[in-house]
Amino acid sequence: MAQRTTGVPHSPLVPTCGRSARLQELDGGEEQRISLLSAESDLHPRLIRIALDYAADHADEVRERIDRNQAMAERSRRTSQQREALLA
After folding, report:
1. 20 to 30 A Cα–Cα from 6, which one of 27, 45, 52, 68?
2. Angle, vertex CA 24, rays to CA 58 and CA 28, nearest 5
């Protein structure tokens, strides 16, 4: 399982960036999205709300981290595809 942090240094609660990004992908109101994410991740809704509060207070930093993580994931996908092509 992925490392869990709130974005608050040295805290093992909720991955702020990943969870914030995932919440944006879900449909419904705030509480419905929190419930869905809680069910997906087995995280207590209170922890997700803490992460949301942190994300709201540090929106620019969180957005930069989300963008950076998405770019790294895309690079990883391209590398994997190139590796597969070399082995084909």
Report:
1. 27
2. 125
